[in-house]
Amino acid sequence: NDLFEATALYDFEGRTERELSFKKGNTLVIFKQVSSDWWEGCFNGKEGLIPDKYVTLKTG
User: Fold this and answer.
1) Measuring CA to CA, which residue among 30, 35, 28, 29 is closest to residue 11?
2) Does pTM surpass 0.85?
3) Where exactly are the structural domains of the chain?
4) Mean of pLDDT values over 8-35
5) Could you say which residues form the signal peptide (predicted)?
6) Is the dihedral of CA 52, 5, 20, 24 positive or negative?
């Protein structure tokens, strides 16, 4: 599986243990899409869910 990088467009505060918290401008690693609204990935060594609308995937 290819890993993707994504850049955070906004600050996000995870509401559950499974959701990652990050700040605008952070780079996150994306593993896979788990639903139309969520990605699974990691940030700061922690794995969890990342909301699709808060990040933009880096292409190329």
Assistant:
1) 28
2) yes
3) 4-57
4) 97
5) none
6) negative
The domain over range 4-57 is classified in CATH as 1.10.10.60: no
- Kindly tell me the sign of the dihedral angle through the C-alpha atoms of 52, 14, 3, 55: positive
- pLDDT given at position 60: 66
User: Euclidean distance between the first and final Cα of the chain, in Å?
Assistant: 16
15 Cβ partners below 8 Å, 6+ apart? none
Q: Which candidate, 45, 44, 42, places its Cα nearest to that of 4?
A: 42
10 Å CB burial of residue 21 (0-12, 13-18, 19+) is middle
Convert the pLDDT of each residue in 31-56 to its tens digit: 999 999 999 999 999 999 999 999 99
